[in-house]
Amino acid sequence: LKMSWFWLYLPLHLLTVTSLCHSIKAPTSSSQQSFKTNLFNFYHSLILADGKETTVHLLKDIPKRYYFVLEEGRVLAPFSITVTPCDVPIEWSILVYKSPPGFPGKATPGDHDTQEISKSQKAPSMVSTIFNYKGNSVETYMGMSSHSALYLLEFLSTERDTHITVYLTTDTTSGHLYPELPTDPRIDVVGIGHTTVTLTWKHSPSVLQHRDSIQYCLLVNEKHNYKSLCAAETATRSSGMKLPPTLALSLSPYLLEPQQVMILSNSELSIINKASSGEVRQVCMGTRNTYTVPNLSPSTQYYFDVFIVNLLTNASAAYTGTFARTLEEPEPKVTELKDGKVVHVVLDGKKQKFYSLQYQARHKKIHFTFQLCRGQIRVHITRNGKTVASENLSGLRYLSLKGKLLDTYVVQLRSTEESNSSVKVQASPHFHKPLFPLLPESLKIKSFSKLRTCRSVTIAWLGTQEESKYCVYRKRIEEDQIWGELHSADRCSGPESRHKSEKVLCKYFYDLNPQRAVTTETIKGLEAGTFYLFDVYLFGPSGIPVRYHSKVVKTRKKC
């Protein structure tokens, strides 16, 4: 719409609308009311821009109206209107006001006589509805417009406040704002696994014409399909997550919210939004029309929507969504636990799978021992199918359970973090020779700041009432290695994994009074201003060591 022309032409259109007053003689009560309503609608409407997508905000039960006209000189011209609901279903209509070719807005040159205008104003006029729709689908109306017609668009939301987008164009020769969908816009599911679904779809004609500015984006969720990218963003945002703009699906940078995770690999951008209502995943894969969705949960129904996105205009078109249910996870392989035998289990944190151990009791009392080696692990124990214990493991853990002969215990282990975790497990009758030595109340190593020198460090640790062997090891480290040494160390590994040069000493001690079972050692021959990692290993009757919590101490720079 050319605004310079429009402001000259607008008074004539208002005059045309006013001419309705003169074109109807002695109207009935009902027709008079309808006439006044139509007149009011035209006067209280906004201008709908031509060739531009307009966002319209609707308040519940309050209609909003827009109108448009064609440029002067175009007798008949095609036009199209596309309306995209971004949330709840809406009602929208197209009304047209038509008057004869001789109406004032289109008077022939030289025809400016006041008497002629007066005659034209008395000519018959008509307002009619040419299109009406109610729903939440993307709808496009295509028609032919006359220069002697005003078009009024009316939008109404009866459920709640919402917003929509409206696109009007009268230019059908220079392409489309929205990317073009193929003749068959369906998404085909070509493969289903326990944690993956493979999808394919037919190429959009727009990809062949504008490969550099077009890309496919996939949205995965567990609720339902979405009929537009606008609707998907609104629904996700209303669930408590703040999404980036429509084209955050492209590779343009933006700040992620705390509940969002962005993964960029192999030229793909994945955005995972996490909320209480589930996980919404967005992936853009360029112009590839086949994609395998990874890291899904077994036995779960997912909904898949593909959008073809124009990176230059942010406009998008939606393929027909589909859904698929991942396969059930096969029963985990169960490892048999035997009396007194130690099983070392390594868990893959990325797959988050349970590892199952089974033990059949030959005594009423059963003793389970867990030594957490690395990471974080959750243990779940059932007896004859009923839960008897469930907790997160920390360090060394003993669980004593009482049941009946031949009870079947199943121990399920799962990593609670993404990195790999490992644990040692033993099951035995309660009176069986213990796997680990008697432990003190705390496995912490204490250092004395006042006793630190440039060349020595004094440390202390708790012992027990049983005479046991303790070995001390030291290792020189850099400051940037401290976190890795303290958090990634294998707590089940013994002195055999250490270099011989790291060994400081081994000693035996005990005290029948637990309050006095404390020992100290001063480690000498150190370098000034240097970080050292100290470890203490406790050996019991079985010979399996228990590692105290590592301690990092820095010697003084100057003495």
From TrEMBL:
Pfam family for this entry, one: NDNF_N
Among SUPFAM superfamilies, the record links this protein to: Fibronectin type III (SSF49265)
MF (Gene Ontology): heparin binding
- What InterPro entries does its record include? FN3_dom, FN3_sf, Ig-like_fold, NDNF, NDNF_C, NDNF_Fn(III)_1, NDNF_N
UniProt keyword annotations, A-Z: Glycoprotein, Neurogenesis, Repeat, Secreted, Signal
Instruction: Tell me which GO cellular component terms the UniProt record holds.
Output: extracellular region
Question: Where found in the cell?
Answer: Secreted
Single Gene Ontology BP annotation: nervous system development
- In the UniProt record, the signal sequence range is 1-23
What are the Fibronectin type-III domain coordinates in residue numbering?
Answer: 179-316, 437-545
Q: What does this protein do?
A: Secretory protein that plays a role in various cellular processes. Acts as a chemorepellent acting on gonadotropin-releasing hormone (GnRH) expressing neurons regulating their migration to the hypothalamus. Also promotes neuron migration, growth and survival as well as neurite outgrowth and is involved in the development of the olfactory system. May also act through the regulation of growth factors activity and downstream signaling. Also regulates extracellular matrix assembly and cell adhesiveness.
Name it.
Protein NDNF
Q: Which organism is it from?
A: Myiagra hebetior
